[in-house]
Amino acid sequence: MGTPSDSPPALDWSLGRYERIAEQFLPAARVLVESAAPGPGERVVDVGCGTGNAALLAAALGARVIGVDPASRLLEVAREDAAARGLDAEFAVGDAAELPLDDGSADLVVSVFGVIFAPDAAAAVAELARVTSPSGRVVLSAWIPSGAISQAARMAREAIREARCAPPPAPPFAWHEPGALAELFTPYGFGEPALARERLAFTGPSLEDYLQAELESHPIWAAGRAILEPSGRTEELRERTFEILEAANEDPDGFRITRCYVVATLQR
After folding, report:
1. Which domain CATH number covers 15?
2. Into how many domains does the chain fold?
3. Backbone angles phi, psi at 266, to 5 degrees
4. Cβ contacts of residue 25 below 8 Å, gap of 6+?
5. Which of 18, 95, 104, 255 is the 20 to 30 A CA-CA neighbour of 128?
6. Domain of 63?
7. Angle between the 18-36 and 207-217 helix axes, to the nearest 10 degrees?
């Protein structure tokens, strides 16, 4: 399973064009916010909010929302979107392991594929617990590490690691497993985690179109391009990624791969 501090170093999500990635994740944000059911006036914190998917959905329900993310560029996108839609939401620069919030200041903490990338899971959970009120709850989504898209992402990270001559990382923390979550959250007064399995489809007009958009937009590729291109490995990695996705493609007339994830609810 890997210990809480075994996660890989944090990725700079401001690289590339994360706005496109956020559009893909919007259906998952809707599922999570519907499950969390923030009420009018509830204090909601969105950790790793990115461009504000979940934060703005909660704000539209009348919650008092603060979105937190280390990428200031993405926060500016979220602010502009909130203003354009007439939604009352605040956004602040901050890290999952050091949230710029007072103790007990949130009735609900949400995170859509955000906190799961924290380099130190134990430190992140300690912060989530600190800002959650004595009767509050945490609702987060986490990928189940299986399937073609997960395999392609791991392969890209491994290629970047090898190009940098970095040592192999320890296995990441298992945010998708109830036992692992309970181990970190129950010492802070949370009950047993309740997990619901969900599915998110990644689609495109064709595999070529989808992959090209990923290469241009995804922060992993943006971070790795400068490292891999001098060694001539970019095209090799692209071809291997294409093969993995092609074998898993569910739509013979276009592109579609369904990835599984969980929504975990932890109640104090």
Report:
1. 3.40.50.150
2. 1
3. -125, 120
4. 53, 112, 113, 200
5. 18
6. 4-267
7. 100
